[in-house]
Amino acid sequence: MKLATLASILILTVFSSLAATLPPPPSSFRLVRFAAPDGSATNDGTSTNTPWSLSYALAQAGSTSSINLMPGTYPSIEISTPGTKIVSQTKWAARVVESAGVHGIFTDSNVDNVTIDGVEVAGSSLDGISLGGSNCVVRNCWVHDSLGSGVSARRIPGTLIERNLIERNGHSPAGGYGVNVSGTNCIIRGNVLRYNQSWGCQIYEASPFSTAECDFYNNLVYGNGAGLTVSSPGGQTNYVFNNTISSPTNYCLIAAYGNLGVTNNILVVGGGLAVIAVAGGATVWSDYNLVNASTSPGGPHDVVASVPGFVNSGSGLYWLAAGTPARGVANPAVFPPVDFFGKTESSVTDAGAVQFSSAMAADTRVLDPSAANGADYWLQLSPPSGIPPGISSQPQLQTIMAGQSATFTVIATGDSPLSYQWTFNGLNVGSSSSTYTRANCQLADNGGRVQVSVSNANGTVQSSSVTLTVNPMGTNYYVAAGGSSANTGLSTNSPWSQDYALAHAGASNTIVLMDGGPYPSIYLGTPSIHNGLKIRALNKWKAFIVGLPAQHAYSTDYSVSNVVLDGVHIVSSYIDDVKLLGSYSTVQNCWIAGGGRGDPSWVPNSTGSYSGQGVYISPYASNCIVQYSLIESNGAYRGLDHGLYVSAINTIVRGNVVRYNLAMGCQFTCSMPGTVITGEQCYENLIYGNGRLNGPNEGKDCLYVDANASTGTNWIYGNILQNNGLYPTIAAYHGTIYVTNNIIMGGNRGDYAGGIDIVSGIGYADYNLMTNSLSGSGAIDGGHNVIASSFGFVNPANGLWWLASNSPARRRAVNQPGPVDFFG
């Protein structure tokens, strides 16, 4: 067979896949039967007034039956009859909470042509939805918090998974995926796959089985352990197009074996990893993608842009902003039959899952069905005719700062069209949509009552009345492990819960963590409420955080800046304890331990199964400060896990004690191409005992600095650095480094001549007290360094590295102090 162009391959495959997927029977041919949690076998099941029980409905349903689930909570659903359709009467109002030890909803083997529509599946101990037959459909569902995968369908043809929200699945030690599919002619489209422990989606099968002619398009994939992997050991072809995939800590896309077409996607990867990885000799046809780093394989029409231009990725709004470089760069010959919302599509102009529109670019609602200002961006199910309006999600009270805007949202059901009338303190405010925004709120608005009436041709319903709270800037909000959103948060006697405080404290205010815990992981991801936020322990080290699975203990988004973490004790975290992606962030007075050791049974290893630093500062950040903190006993992977790992420019690391971490004390470097490490200041730190794994003679660098380019200039001064000797105490590469007024002990292994080793670049060293001489091709000795075998500390065995009266370090420094001393 001759290889066609990428465009023609994709177009042919889209329509051949659709033809292979059997359409469901027309609704007019189906017998509709109603089921309810309190239904009965004595009813006839023909109306909402006479519903069957679920078990009776499943037993009676034929191959052309549609079981409409009325709102409520149901146990696990086992489907044994081919052709069965399970549909929630109101989208996500029928909730399946699994029976112990089984999937949430599952079909028996070879039970084909099943449809599951509009159901919420929550907290399954295995997979959320598991399909065992061919030509099955899962659409409009919300599948979350399963211990296994969200949706699985293995080695079966014709699976269609569309317009679902699949999130937070895979909490078991074995991991789990958002979607785990294999077979032929499978289609995964228009879904949001996020926060799943392992891959957002795995279209994968091991040899001798294989996956062929599968289409993955119009999906939004972010926040997962990794993005998408596609494998076809038999050498067949699959297609990935018009998706938005963001994976800040792992691969966006892996192609293993077979052939893969990749076009019109937005692919964003972090950590210097490859955007597309190829394994098993796979052939990848890739072009017309927007990527944030150069990619190989790639095509001549790929666009590389460090800022893809989303509306607000921190809130899950990966819609294209007006200035995005994704506009107009797609191959117009490659388009899916329907768009992200399920509407027929005849052309595309933009890369990514969602084409640009001014309405989407201006939409600031959070992509979250449970949030106060959340929104469901997929198609709603059509309710039966003659249904009056109802409210499925009430407006929620809002707490903001003076000068900010407050947005209230209602989710209503009933016959269209629906009309809305909002009131503030009983007065009409003129909004005719499901959201009402009160802009530039002032203290005079504090205590205002907001309410909405929803109407259609069949009646009117009024929402509950909620309060707008407007606080002055600079407010302290108190949080306790047992706090509540019903409290005011304004005193230790009325503390908020942590989640509520993070959502409502507002920018430039302070969240005060009261003594105790454990507090769960903290993520600051929304600039409008998190910029400038300070999180402080009421009493230093008395409030402690234990990181949640697959999460950092404390992390910030790229878009959130000027935040402070102060005085908190981080006990352990599954990944890095602290991860800073936003600029002008500060970590101070903290006790940071247990990075990469979220499970107490984990032990240091050499395989990379687990990994975590004490503090990681991303190359996307700048001007961050880490000061006056105890950073110790971090790391689970011996080769990589340091006390601090800094990949950003203009970082200040001062006044810290950094000890007993698995690898280096502090590493300043970045593997991202074109990055220059410059402006780093590391001073007044005590760094010792790091890298001690196999005996008293082992030890990693206290400080490792790689400027990545000759233009980088960095400073190390006023530190006490101790290394047992296997590596240089300070190792420097590229650029220019100034090393002054330090006490430097160790670093005398045979292949290193000195405690300071300038491997490349230029290193000016002077006024240091050292056990070994300066070494390296670029080393410049200022002539005032002193070599000594004894340094005169009070009691280093107990961590007292203070200078004794007879220390040779006295009066050896040049007058070059930092702006503050070790104690601040």
Q: Termini separation (Å)?
A: 72 Å
Q: Percent of residues in beta strands?
A: 25-35%
The largest sheet is: 12 strands, parallel
Report the mean per-residue pLDDT as an integer: 86
The general outline is globular
- Identify low-pLDDT runs: 1-29, 379-385
Question: What share of the residues lie within helices?
Answer: under 10%
Structure write-up:
This protein has 824 residues and is mainly beta. It contains 5 helices and 78 strands. Strands 44-45-48-51-54-57-60-63-66-69-72-75 form a 12-stranded parallel beta sheet, with helices on one face. Strands 1-2-5-8-11-14-17-20-23-26-29 form an 11-stranded parallel beta sheet, sandwiched between helices. The radius of gyration is 29 Å and the shape is globular. The termini are far apart. The N terminus is likely disordered.
Keywords:
824 residues, mainly beta, eleven-stranded parallel sheet, 5 helices, 4% helix, disordered N terminus
At a glance:
With 824 residues, the chain is mainly beta. The chain contains 5 helices and 78 strands. Helix content is 4%, strand content 34%.
List the helices and strands and how they pair.
Elements: H1 6-20, E1 31-35, H2 54-60, E2 65-69, E3 72-74, E4 77-79, E5 85-88, E6 94-97, E7 105-107, E8 115-117, E9 120-122, E10 129-131, E11 137-139, E12 142-144, E13 151-153, E14 160-162, E15 165-167, E16 179-181, E17 187-189, E18 192-194, E19 199-203, E20 215-217, E21 220-222, E22 226-231, E23 237-241, E24 244-247, E25 253-256, E26 259-263, E27 266-269, E28 276-279, E29 283-287, E30 290-291, E31 303-304, E32 310-312, E33 317-320, H3 358-361, E34 390-393, E35 398-401, E36 406-409, E37 411-413, E38 419-424, E39 427-428, E40 435-438, E41 448-456, E42 459-462, E43 466-471, E44 476-479, H4 498-504, E45 510-513, E46 516-519, E47 522-524, H5 527-530, E48 534-537, E49 543-546, E50 554-556, E51 564-566, E52 569-572, E53 578-580, E54 586-588, E55 591-593, E56 615-617, E57 625-627, E58 630-632, E59 644-646, E60 652-654, E61 657-659, E62 666-668, E63 681-683, E64 686-688, E65 703-706, E66 713-717, E67 720-722, E68 730-733, E69 736-740, E70 743-745, E71 756-758, E72 762-766, E73 769-770, E74 774-775, E75 779-781, ...
Parallel strand pairs: 1-2, 2-5, 3-6, 4-7, 5-8, 6-9, 7-10, 8-11, 9-12, 10-13, 11-14, 12-15, 13-16, 14-17, 15-18, 16-19, 17-20, 18-21, 19-22, 20-23, 21-24, 22-25, 23-26, 24-27, 25-28, 26-29, 27-30, 30-31, 35-43, 44-45, 45-48, 46-49, 47-50, 48-51, 49-52, 50-53, 51-54, 52-55, 53-56, 54-57, ...
Antiparallel strand pairs: 32-33, 34-37, 36-40, 38-39, 38-41, 41-42, 41-43, 77-78
